[in-house]
Request: fold
Amino acid sequence: MIYLQIFISFFKIGIFGFGGGAAMISFFQYELVDKYGWISAPQLTDMIAVSQMTPGPIGINCATYAGYLATGTVWGSFIATFAIVLPSFIIMILLTRFVAKYANNLYIEKCMQILRPTVIGLIGAAVFSMLTEDTFGPNYSNISSWIIFIVSLFLLDKIKLNPLILIVAAAVIGLIIY
Amino acid sequence: MNQKNTKNIYLEMFWSFFKIGAFTIGGGYAMLPLIQREVVDRKKWIDSKEFLDMTVLAQTAPGLLAMNISIAVGNKIKGKKGALVSSIGAALPSFVSILIIAIFLTKFQDNIYIKKMFKALRPVVVALLVIPIITLSKGAGLNWKNVWMPIVAAVGISFFNLSPVWFILAAILGGIGWAYTKKRRVKE
Reply:
């Protein structure tokens, strides 16, 4: 029952997905690529590139995309998207109800103090999972891929270039050089 | 008359969040200023202090920041129904555009031009993910006392193939334990 599996997987990601879109990618990698094989590792990477050019949050984009690829139907997309937002819906409505009581709660403060560094590790794992031969060529020998990587890093970190511009520019470069 | 007004507010909310969803590229943090402009400055559905509280809450809670904040704002204006309307509005542009792309890409994934573009895009995506590691490392107050946490998580997930869920659970349990011992020490 693939629809039920999709629902459970994305619901789980919605519950445990602390730290936003980038941190969620390690969940996508684990659940969608490694565990169920609904999408391949390069497809996930491509999806993230597409996400930078399309409207909306990356998690919704990934859910819609993986749901479609897993089932080949719009229903798959719908169930995945619904399932990833459902925990937010429940948690946010409960939290706003009790916000006055818990806003400065010591338990929440200490949990966040540990969750924040942990989430960085989750993003690190996502980066590791993309350092593959699909990305950098056989034996990691594709020089142009490494140049694109290092130049992108520089433009994003030092120049604060808009990712959208970078993605469009890289796509055009890809058409020319490959 | 009254019923007509409530219908209008739902439609107005849907349209506002639909616009926010449609015009923010890159998601999450890019959406925050747009949401603020629309619901605080233009529509005056909530004030800026409430919005700030909601932002903190949305960042603390699990899930997607943009969806969390849309749900919180919708809930504030019109309860659960409002949250439903605002979240559907915010997610719909993303859902529709990705669906179209997914259908297109599955048909044309072997197209030589698509392949060329993605070959160049993959290293860019890796760089895009390194950036939040740099910025979050500063924001999370990473120091020699807690730097082992991200390292253990990254190694555990990447090399021991453990689910990220375990590390999130461990962090929450660690936080609860920390707060508990601190409270007990204060009492004594």
